[in-house]
Every structure is written in C-alpha cells, then in structure tokens.
UniProtKB/TrEMBL annotation:
Protein family according to the UniProt entry: Belongs to the disease resistance NB-LRR family.
Pfam families, alphabetized: LRR_8 (PF13855), LRR_R13L1-DRL21 (PF25019), NB-ARC (PF00931), WHD_DRP (PF23559)
InterPro entries on file: Leu-rich_rpt, LRR_dom_sf, LRR_R13L1-DRL21, NB-ARC, P-loop_NTPase, WH-like_DNA-bd_sf, WHD_DRP
SUPFAM superfamilies xref list: L domain-like, P-loop containing nucleoside triphosphate hydrolases
GO biological process terms on file: defense response to virus
GO molecular function annotations of the record: ADP binding; ATP binding
Domain NB-ARC stretches: 72-242
Keywords from the named record: ATP-binding, Leucine-rich repeat, Nucleotide-binding, Plant defense, Repeat
Domain R13L1/DRL21-like LRR repeat region intervals: 587-709
Domain Disease resistance protein winged helix: 329-399
Protein name: NB-ARC domain-containing protein
Origin organism lineage: Eukaryota, Viridiplantae, Streptophyta, Embryophyta, Tracheophyta
Amino acid sequence: MVFSTFKLGLPHEISKLQKELEGIASEMDSFSLTQLIKFGFPRRDMGIQLGSTSCGSSSVSLVEEMNLIGREKQKEEIVEMLLTEDVGGNNVSVIPIVGMGGLGKTTLAQIVYNNEEIVKDFDLRMWVYVSVDFDVIRITKSIIESATERSCKLLDLDPIQVTVQKLLRGKKFLLVLDDLWNENYGDWDVLRAPFRVGLRGSKILVTTRSSIVSSIVGTTPPYYLPSLSDEDCWKVMKQRAFLNWNSDENERFEVIGKKIAKKCDGLPLAAKTLGSVLHSKTSEKDWDTLLRSELWDLPQDKNEIFPALRLSYHHLPTHLKRCFAYCSIFPCNHEFEIDNLVLVWMAEGLIQPVGEQRLEDIGSDYFSDLLWRCFFQYSHVNIHNQPVYKMHDVIHSMAQFISAGMCFRMEDDKGCWYPMFRNVRHLSLNHKNIQHITSKPFDRWRRRLRTFLVMCEDGACVGQIPSDLFLKLGRLRMLDLSCIGIDELPDSIDHLKHLRYLNLSENRFQKLPESIDNLVGLQTLKLRNCFELLELPKNLKNLTNLRHLDLDVKRQLNSMPSELGRLINLQTLSAFIVGKEKGRSVAELKNMRFLRGSICITNLENVMNVMEAKEAMLDKKPHLNKVEFQWNNFGDRFIQQEVLAGLQPHENVKELQVTNYGGIIFPSWLSDPLSCKLVSIHLQSCQRCTILPPLGQLPLLKSLYIESMGDLVNVDHRFCGFGTVRGFPSLESLKFHDMPNLTAWKGLSPADMPCLLELTIVDCPRLVTLPLLHNLSCLENLDISRCPKLQSLPEEGLPTSLKTLIIVESVILKERCKVEEGEDWCKIKTIQKIEIDYIEIPRRSQRI
C-alpha cells in the first residue's frame, strides 16, 4: 500500500526523466559495440565510410628515422630513382608510389624527402598534402607556401601559377604530392602546367592508393610498395610494446608477440596500433587472449586496417571510449589543440574527477593515453608554439561509426534531418550561410542536444544567429560559433542555463549581450581575434564558475569590466587591461591564485606606485609560465621603474616580455639567479634604457631578444654578469634589432656564451665593432643586416662551428667579404652557406 501510494505520487518531472532514461538505454542498444564487432564496417545507408576516401589526415614532411623499419631497401631504390635523370628526355619526371592505406607510403616519402643526398642534390624541395579534395588553386598555393615558407594571399589561378613558374624556373626541384586521388586527366594537366620550367633532373614524387592515378601522372612505371615482413611488423610492435620493459620480460613475450605480428598482414599502422595495446598488457595470459580473440576474424575482402583499430578501441577504458567517440563531431583533418579539446570534454562531463586533481590535468592525461594508443597523431606546432594533432582518417571514420546515433555531422546540402537521428546529443553543422539556418529542425532536439558546433569554410558564414534558435537549445553544454562571421549575438542566449563552454572567437561583433551574465554555469569563454570587440559585459563578475577567459592580447578592448577580481576560479586570463578606477586596477588580479599559462598585462601607465603594483601578487602565482608587461606611453620614469620592480613574478615564470617600458634601468629581480628561472626574455621598445641588466647571470636563459632601445649606446662586460654564474651559460639565441644608437659591443671573455647557436644583429646603423673572440665554439648561424658602419669581422676570425653567414646591406663588410678579393674572405671561405645581399655564394666559389 505504501509502495502504491508512492508510485501514484511520482512527480511529473521524475516520470519524464524516467522515460528519457529509457530512451537513452534504447539508443545505446541500437548502436552498441556488438554491431561493430559483428559487421566490422558501418551500414552503407548511414552514409558513413571507413577509409580515407571520405576524408584525409594531413601529412607533413618531417619524420623520425626510427620509422624506417623494414623499408631500407625501398628507401634506397626511391632515392636512386630521384637522383637518376629520366632517360625519356623529360625535364621533370613523375614517380608514383602506389599501395593500400596504412602501408606506409607517406612515411617512405618522408624518409626519402629528408634524405641527406636528396637535400644536397635539389635546389628546392616542396611538400604538399593533396587528399580527396583536388582543388588546383589550393594545391598550387600550398606549393608556393612550402617553397617560400610564407602564406600565399593570391586568389586567382593565373597569378598563382605564374608565381610558381617564377619559383621553379631554372631550379632543380623536388615536389612531393602526398595522397593523390584525382583520376581526371584534365585536372592533372592544369596542375602540372607550371612545372615544366624546372631544370632537367627535377622530380615529382606522388603517393597514391590508385593505379589509375599512377597511370595518369607517372612518367615512370609505378613503384608498388610491398607489405612488411612478419619479422618487421614484430620489430615495429616491439618499439611500443616493450618500451621501458627489462630484457628478461621481453624474452617471455616474444613467442606470442611474433604470432600476433602475423595478424598485422604487413601493415605498419596495424603493427603500431597493436604495439600500443600490448604495452599495457603485462601478463602472458593477456597477450594470449589477444592472439586468440575473435575480433581478429575479418573476411579478406574487408579493410585490413580496421581489425587492429577495432581491437584498439575495444581495449580502451570506458572514459576514453566516450572521449574518443565524441571527437567524431569534428570534421576529418581537424586540427586538435589539447587544451581546447580538454575544455570541451569538461563541458560535456566526460572527465571523471580524481581527488583534488584539476579536471584539466585529468583531461590532458586522457589525451595522452589516446595519443599513445595512436588515436591521434602529431601534426605540427602552431603560431603559439603549441603542438597540434590530427586523427587518421580511418580512425576518424571508426569514431563516426561508434558514435552513430549520438553524434552527427551534417554537411551543407549533403544531408537532411533524418528521423534516425532524432536522439542526437552532439551536433556539428558545416553551413555556407548561417542566415539560412532555421530553428525548425531543432524542435525535436529541444530536450536532447548537448553540443552544437557550427562551422563555415573560410569564415564564409555572415549575418546573425536566428533570434529564436537559443530558445530551443536549453540543454546545451557546449556551443561553438567561432570563425563564422557573425556580427551580433541575440539576447536569448541567456536561455542556455546549462552552458559550460562558449566559443565566439574570430567574429565581428562589437559587444556581447549583457544577458550573457546569466550563464552562471559557464566554465570557458573564448573571444580570440574578435578585433571589433570594444567591451565585455558589465556584470561579467557574476560568472563565478568561469575558469578560462581567453582574450586576444592585441588589446582590441578599451577596458576590463569592473570587479573582475571576483572571478577567483579563473585559470586562464590571457589579457588584463589596467584601469585607473576602483575595481579596474591591477589589484583585481590579487585573488586569482589559480592563474596559469600566459598573461599580458597592459596599460601599466595607470599603475601609480610600487605598492599598487605589489597588490597584483604576481609572485604568489606559481602556475604562470609566461608574463608580458606593456605600457602605452613612457610617463614618469621613476614611477615606471618602481612599478616594474613591484610586478616581480613568481620564480616559476619561464618567459618574460617587457614592452614600452619608460625606465632607465631594470629591477634587480630580472637578473637575480636565485629567484629567476627565465628561459626566454624579450625587451622591446624600452627607449630610455641606457644600461642592459646583467642577464648573463641567469643560469637557464636560452633565448634573448633585445629591440628598439633608442638610448642604448654601449654594451659592455656588465651585460655578462658577475659572481659564480655569469656569461650566459645556457644562451642559444641572441638577437639585437633596431638599435639606432648602439655604437659598440665589447667585453666578451673566451668562456662567455658557450652554447650560443644563433646570433642576429639587424638595423644597428652606428655599430662599429663585434666582440665575437672566435671562442663561441657552438655558433652555427650569424646574421648581420643593415649595419653599414661595421668595420670588419673579428681579427681572430669566426668560430669554426659556423655553418651559415648572412650579410645584408652592410657596405663595408660586403666589400671585405668579396670572393678571393676581400680582406675578410679568408675568414669565411670555409663556411657552408654564405649569403650576401640576398645572393648565395655558390659552394664552388668557396672551394676555390
């Protein structure tokens, strides 16, 4: 009776929740892993394909030599083909490497591309990733960018191809076109038109899965890449499986491991993936279980890579499975930055708390685990010097299949709102024009959608978000509207009460709706490169759960909102604009004890004294690793000296930049070897500075960049420091730039700067002498540009370690360094690369 009464009294909301949970359970059944194991591939009616015919992961030219296992013979053969002139009389030969996906075509091409003989033989090398999207303009621009290492802004094909011709004319070049799919003769004829101007012996190396492609582009017979032997597959597996194991343990597992290696069927990708799986399996029973697992059984006509990928996924912990599957909402070839991906996972509740550990740190560990298991691969370093990662196309396709029903990516004009996707939780939409997005399809997801990611190619979307869209997305946790060109955000955004992550970067609005202050659960707000943004919401202080406020350091904002110091949970605050009013002073940073990463503090002319500067308590923020101090005008020099002294950061800070500082001298903390662990220092436009601090006392300093110091006349022995630590013991790069009154640099002792690799001296019109003492035994690169009064190179000569010497618009030095005739020629003739006024002196001249 009691039970019945309770049942009848269930609140309406609980009843609805029960139905919703039942629906989720039904969905999970519908796309359970059993389908994946049973069929191996997704159904064709779902519009999802495995393999890279639907998308591709971008390749780069760099590769580790350890990836050469089993390819020594192939490397030698391809190198010989590249170094041998085409007997058919073609100036430019095209060599296709053909093989199935995962066989290592790209890796082989990377190894050959970086081969020492190849580097020496070709005047110019270029690497371009092509993939399925054969866009002649994009590919040709990539050729220019690879050749020049600069972005190509041209838009039309004709000037782009003319530029390529100019770059290639009269040069012996090597061009790698990686992952070519296009089977159209006409497209290839258009693309190759500028290549004919290359010198005889020029080569184009093409990697492709298609023999038809090789027949279209090749001027030589295709090179079919064989599979690895079972022994070589085992060697690849061992690299990962036995990392940090002792040799006794290795021997016990070799017999089973070699049997497992046979299942790889010669595919390097499968071997690497399995090696990662086996690394965490520490008992022979586990290895034997993998050997006998039914997950290996797949018909021969199926994709041979997929069993290994499927097996790798099957052995992931549950929390990693969810994080991996979630990544399917991002497009193929998406560039993943670890920090941002972790914040998205956090917003969706995919990261499980562990004691007092930060969720961000736990999420980084998740990513590292997935990276080690080959679900991600390293791509490159971005402009912020942060690593960027990508998913292999086959792995991305597997993520799409696994997450089908919960995650859905819709391409503009390539799909519809299928009823089968009614239970979607995470949606990404690639749309050409955001104004064409209507809110009607979102009716069915009113209570379901948790993720909404909108993307537009090249920021093509323009206009406003439909005003009623947010009214139907009240359960969203993650909203990404970055890079889509919107100029206004509707006030209705305050209906997203559960929102935790909001990315509005690279848009055109001048302000945000004040209603955004009601999103009290928000953890992350990204506003990078919003160059027209003038102000933040006045009551941003109400977002007390905010952990990451990512602003652009280019300071498009006029000021910070008042009392930002109430956001004591902030960990990321990339920029802070100091104001004079109460609630906007630098003291607002006082209680933000969790700040980490980098921060740019600007408008420091508004700080009036040392006590006010100390209120920021930067020395109590141990997690900051980069700090930038900026003034907009010089003001009172004594006040600015006091302020910089009071802004002493924590000793854990690794990078420091000081810009437009109006003091004459720098504070003592900047050169204190006991309280300063700086690795990089950039002093910029400190025009009143007359004495450089003794930075040679810093034991860890590797990079020093000094520019635009108008009052600095001399650099002497004091620059290298005093005491037990002196002489820049770790410095690798030193740059002097735009020093209009610098006349003399002297005072280096033979033991100073023992690790210096790179020395750059640019725009020092009054500089007369250099203190090089040939004793800089590690110096490899010396660049002297626009130093017209520099009288000569050091009498003692240059370091024998020097590999590159560049002299630009330095008239006296140019005359003294003339081949055979110049007085300083004997000092430089053995250097590998000499460039004077942008003209490289041929090696044969150096050998005379």
